[in-house]
Specification:
Blueprint (H helix, E strand, L loop, with lengths): L10 H23 L4 H6 L9 H8 L5 H32 L4 H16 L3 H14 L5 H24 L4 H9 L4 H12 L1 H17 L2 H6 L7 H6 L9 H31 L5
Helix pairs in contact: 1-13, 3-13, 4-7, 4-10, 5-7, 7-10, 8-9, 10-13
């Protein structure tokens, strides 16, 4: 019988706060730096006069392309998320409902799992050559295609777990009532996996929004996304720490809002099937 948490002694009062501080302190340091002048950062001042000039520089300075970076990230993350959900839902439904040879379905799901574990940097070189030959290098379309590729395996696995929870009898009853297979999918199955779509959509958008390695290699200044734009505040002879901190804080807002909205669905999706 599991011991209650309260009987674990002082460990919970030491370990848990330590973990929380290790997670929260770096973010608080960046937040504090975003309101400092550059000289205060160099001097490591804990007491300083807060300023909003860093945020003003990030959004309004002629040297900053941050608004363009935000637009590029919104387009890439939004389009790739919609594409991933569409393809992922169709693929997961097909793998669960249609009769596929076992070697094909098991082999495909196994390959998706292996592909999801491959370091992204190993794919950047081939993608660079392919997109350059196709004339898609330095375009948002290239980024969307790559983000769909890297997020699709996770989406298929996640949605497959949700489709497995739907009794086949519901769709069979709809087909007896006159629905075609496509209508049964759209009117019966798809509404029942909305929590899974929200969970997969939140994860795909956040991963795409934060992706850095591919965007750094496949974009230039005009098509750079937010993570690349933040990195550009560090030049060869000058590192704008305060502006970089302000841009980093702004960049975390969409991810925090999405995770706050979809936290319940993400936890449900990641733990689905763990407890029967």
């Amino acid at each position: 019988m599991a011991r209650p948490l309260a009987s674990h002694g002082p460990l919970q009062y030491v370990l848990l706060p330590t973990i929380v501080l290790a997670i929260v302190l770096p973010f608080l340091w960046i937040l504090m730096s975003s309101f400092k002048y550059q000289i205060d950062i160099y001097q490591g001042s804990w007491v300083f006069a807060p300023t909003l000039s860093n945020y003003i520089d990030v959004f309004l300075s002629r040297r900053s392309d941050f608004l363009s970076n935000v637009w590029n990230s919104l387009v890439v993350a939004g389009a790739s998320t919609v594409s991933v959900l569409t393809l992922g839902a169709l693929a997961a439904y097909s793998l669960h409902r249609f009769v596929w040879a076992k070697w094909f379905s098991v082999g495909l799901l196994g390959w998706l799992l292996v592909f999801h574990m491959i370091p992204v940097m190993t794919l950047v070189g081939p993608w660079y050559l392919v997109f350059r030959e196709l004339g898609l290098y330095d375009t948002r379309a290239a980024l969307i295609l790559t983000h769909v590729t890297i997020n699709l395996p996770m989406t298929i696995w996640l949605l497959l777990a949700f489709f497995r929870e739907i009794p086949k009898e519901l769709e069979e009853a709809a087909e007896i009532d006159g629905c075609r297979r496509a209508q049964a999918f759209r009117l019966v199955a798809l509404p029942l996996v909305v929590p899974g779509l929200i969970a997969a959509g939140v994860l795909a958008f956040v991963f795409s929004w934060n992706e850095f390695a591919i965007a750094l290699n496949l974009t230039s200044r005009a098509t750079a996304t937010v993570p690349v734009g933040i990195a550009l505040f560090a030049q060869q002879y000058e590192v704008q720490h305060s502006q970089m901190a302000a841009a980093s804080i702004v960049a975390t807002i969409p991810a925090i809002l999405l995770m706050f909205f979809g936290q319940r669905f993400v936890i449900q999706g990641l733990t689905l099937g763990a407890v029967k």
